[in-house]
Amino acid sequence: MSLVFDITFLYMFLFILSLNIVLCIEIEIKDFHPQERDALLLIRDSLNSSSINLHRNWTGPPCIENNLSIWFGIACSNWHVVHITIQGVNLSGYLPSTFLQNITFLRQIDFRNNALFGLLPNLTGLVFLEEVKLSFNHFSGSIPLEYVELYNLDILELQENYLDGEIPPFDQPSLISFNVSYNHLVGKIPETSLLQRFPKSSFDDNSDLCGKPLDKSCSAESPAPLPFAIAPTSSMETNKTRIHVWIIALIAVVAALCIFLMIIAFLFCKRKARGNEERINDSARYVFGAWAKKMVSIVGNSEDSEKLGQLEFSNKKFQVFDMDDLLRASAEVLGGGDFGVTYKATLETGNVVAVKRLGYMNDLSKKEFIQQMQLLGEIKHENVAEIISFFHSEDQKLVIYELVSDGTLSELLHEGRGIGRIPLDWTTRLAIIKDIAKGLDFLHQFLSSHKVPHANLKSSNVLIHQDNQGYHSKLTDYGFLPLLSSSMKNAEKLSISKSPEFVKRKKLTHKTDVYCFGIIMLEIITGKIPGHILGNEVEETSNDLSDWVRTVVNNDWSTDIFDLEILAEKDGHDAMLNLTEIALECTDMMPEKRPKMSLVLKRIEEIEQMMKDNE
Ligand SMILES: Nc1ncnc2c1ncn2[C@@H]1O[C@H](COP(=O)(O)OP(=O)(O)OP(=O)(O)O)[C@@H](O)[C@H]1O
């Protein structure tokens, strides 16, 4: 009897348990909105960023309990994705056209300050949208008409893109902030009561925009001529002739239309076959072309020919091109950073240069900019990328560098990890460390009066050139701190912002550069990306790499820190450990305990000599 009771009890227990499991699964399925996740994965797989790795971060469910999300830039409410905020992270690529439509409860979309191409996203049906911020990108095409149907929209920011066409008649009462300046919009600003309320600055710098609130009035539109208009006559004969003419005209139009469609279809197939890569290049070329168009329009509109200004040359040997040549150059985007976008420009003369278009520096005076650039232009060193020329106008600041053709140290160290990658051996790594130390030591001497001479030293600002003698490194993006000093917020975009003294708002010195150099050394020795040690790319802590190395070394597991690609080179272990010791001194929390760059260079050269002697 008791056995029967036990078995019955066991069955009941199992039944309840299985019921619970079913319920749990149901709860999980209910909590998880696969269509929203799929939409986000579409974005993830279409875009690239050199600052964040969406592929590694956007995994698992986008929303978890308590309205939280561990996905970068995603905020949730009630298990629904409500905010997508991915700004200023070098995001490049094309947004899939209808990707957002399944994220029904979306309230905010913010992709500002990236390098996104193509058409603006389709937002049809996203009735909860309150903020759409897509400014400072490379979007092209027209503003979709459906945007006027977003009745809860508070903010629409589309400035600094390459948008063309006319402005749709926005009139939703909710809209309190609107900006479409710095585009290529044309036509009359619609006379809706809403649009007339915004200031002139919301519409400024569009090639052919007219009407209020701009000062430019629209020329009187002449009525469009009627197609195939024929002078009216009273006789039947004339009517007959008219009908004939219409029939002939109709046939001609249909024939022309057929030919036109055939040409379009042919071009479309041809274009498709050219493949994805070319599409990106085309778009990049367009971006530079569009920029050039904008510059030309500034000159054209300007009463003051000084507005465009001249290219300033720091090196006479390169003075073979001028602004016109630069605007006619074919160009492609090399990448975008925190301070703007860098292009490779091939001039008609055959010269190839890197053009960095600086954002964030618009409040800077021309005098300050020119003084600093003239000084930086005098720097000539084999381990520092040369500034050939620069340009200043009210809204454009360009720095033209020598082109260093083989990528960055960051790419060399971290890209293509896994099967098929050619390991970066220890001798090469040591040579790179020495090159960087030489370049930085030179900057410290040349710009000795600067608070922090480089101020933005990180592996993506070490450019690589390869020849039959090996790899050569050149530092770039140096000397910008004086241009930003008026705003601490801008300085936060520099690599020095990760130093302990910056975080504690203490005095910055040359030793702040030394700290950044120590971090690069650790990155080269360990093969690990600073800020990613805990696999957490969201909050880049200032010193997680040096903390981790210190802990491992203090526990006598020193060789555990070596990148697997150099671990097998046992002869180099002593040198690797000596360099790790220097790197840890350079990353000391107290700036005064860090060695000077000249001493660091001397010690590196001694270690290199020691290695050569042991060979
Ligand atoms: N002088 C140059 N020669 C060749 N390529 C360059 C040159 N300068 C920059 N690049 C390329 O352009 C890309 C973007 O550079 P950019 O300086 O705009 O951004 P970043 O270095 O990634 O970020 P940040 O602006 O924050 O330093 C770099 O990753 C590099 O590949």
From TrEMBL:
InterPro entries: Kinase-like_dom_sf (IPR011009), LRR_dom_sf (IPR032675), LRR_N_plant-typ (IPR013210), PRK1-6/SRF4-like (IPR046959), Prot_kinase_dom (IPR000719), Protein_kinase_ATP_BS (IPR017441), Ser-Thr/Tyr_kinase_cat_dom (IPR001245). It is a single-pass membrane protein. The keyword Protein biosynthesis does not apply. PROSITE patterns: PROTEIN_KINASE_ATP, PROTEIN_KINASE_DOM. Residues 328-611 form the Protein kinase domain. It comes from the Eukaryota. Keywords: ATP-binding, Kinase, Leucine-rich repeat, Membrane, Nucleotide-binding, Phosphoprotein, Receptor, Repeat, Signal, Transferase, Transmembrane, Transmembrane helix. The chain crosses the membrane at residues 243-269. GO terms for cellular component: plasma membrane. Pfam families: LRRNT_2 (PF08263), PK_Tyr_Ser-Thr (PF07714). SUPFAM superfamilies: L domain-like (SSF52058), Protein kinase-like (PK-like) (SSF56112). One of its GO terms (molecular function) is protein serine/threonine kinase activity. ATP binds at K356. It is found in: Membrane. The keyword Hydrolase does not apply. This is LRR receptor-like kinase. It comes from Medicago truncatula (Barrel medic). The gene is 11419299.
